[in-house]
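Shape matters. Shown next:

___
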Amino acid sequence: MSGTGRLTTHVLDTANGHPARGLDIDLYRVVDGALTHVRHVTTNDDGRCDAPLLSGADINVGAYELQFQVGEYFRELDGTAATFLDVVPVRFVLSNPDQHYHVPLLVSPFGYSTYRGS
């Protein structure tokens, strides 16, 4: 079942107090525990993606996982390997294809927080 909703994300670098520019994100569909790669994106200067990760006919009911490549982002930012986190996975369920799902990530090299945004 597909709809008119959309899936978006936004990444904020809380360690440095600015949007996480140039952070790679992979979106996967989860079916019976197996991951199928859907899309790869890189955040823009505002820490957002230039287009929704899913929208229209591409958004379907089911489980998904975003994998945020935060270790690579922080290593490239400061040139060191001093990061505890590498890949931050966020698994969630889209239950209504007509809704807007926004998954923000607040991240530092050593911790993160996420929630369903608006």
In short: The mean pLDDT is 94. The chain has one domain: 6-114. The beta strands are 6-13, 18-19, 24-31, 34-42, 54-55, 62-68, 88-94, 100-108, 111-114. The domain at 6-114 is CATH 2.60.40.180 (Immunoglobulin-like).
